[in-house]
Amino acid sequence: MGKYPHGLFTWADLASADVEGAKAFYSGLFGWDAEDQFDPDGNYIYTMFSKAGSVTAGLGKMPEAMQGQPGMPGGLWSSYINVDDADAVVAKATASGGTVMMPAMDVMTSGRMAFLIDPTGAMFGIWQPGDHTGAGVFNEHGAMTWNELVTRDVGGAKSFYEATLGWGFQLMQEAPEYWAITLDTKVDGDGDADDNMNGGIMAIGDDFPPEMPPMWTVYFQVDDSAAAIAKAQELGGSVVFGPMDTNAGIIVGLADPQGGNFTVIQVATAA
Questions:
Q1: Which of 74, 75, 80, 202 is the most buried (most CB within 10 A)?
Q2: Is residue 3 part of a domain?
Q3: What are the pLDDT digits (tens) for 35-78?
Q4: Range of the domain at 146
Q5: Which residues, 6 or more positions from 106, have their beta carbon under 8 angstroms from its beta carbon?
Q6: pTM (two decimals)
C-alpha cells in the first residue's frame, strides 16, 4: 500500500501527439519542470512534470493508432485513482457493469495500472503504487486539486463507484445535481471527509451540448484565473468554457495547442 488511501485520485497524465509542444505549454503555464525518461536503448518513454522538486503530473506520446481517429484530439488527459490491489478492483469493476479498456499491467517497478470504463461510458485509470506513489503536491498553484465526472446517469455512476472503489458521496447541490466523493464514509472512518475529497460527480444537464460524452476531467489549481487564461492563450491554448464564478471558486476550461482539455480553478477564499 502506498502513502495515499485507497480510492483517492493521486495522479494525472497527458497522452499527446506533440510531446515537445506539450512540454513547452505546460511548463510555461504552470511553471513546471520537465524531466524525460528513456529506456536502456535511449528510446523516449515518459516525461515527469514537477514543481519545486515535487512531481505534479506526467506526459507520454499518444499512440499512433489513436492519432487522427474521428473525434480524437491531439491530447488526452487521464486521471488515476490510487488502489491497494489493481487486479481486485478490475474484478469488482467488471462485476459491477464496467468494461476493461486496458487490463492490469506492471509498469516496471513504478506500479501496476489498468484503464477502465464505467457503465455510463467514462474512462478512468487505476494505480497500484510501487516506486511511484503519485503526485507529491496537491491543492496549490500548478498542482492537481480536483477530478470531476460529468454523466447523464449519476445514480448508475454512484452505484458503480461505490461497489468498485468503496466511495461514499455527499450532495453538494441539487441543480445541476452534484455529489462530492468522500472516502471516510467507506474507507477511513476518521470523520473528516474534507481531508479526502478530491473528486465529484455532476449531472450533464440540458445546457450541455447533446454530443457531450461522459468523461472525467482533471482540475489544476491556479492563483489567478485571468492570468492563467492570458498565459494559456499566449502559449497557443484556448478557452473551452468560462470563466465561471462558483461557490468553489472561478473555474475555466482550457485546451492545450494539441487539443488536450483540462480545467483550472482559482479557489475561493474565505470572506
A1: 80
A2: no
A3: 999 989 999 999 999 999 999 999 999 987 777 777 778 899 99
A4: 9-267
A5: 112, 130
A6: 0.92
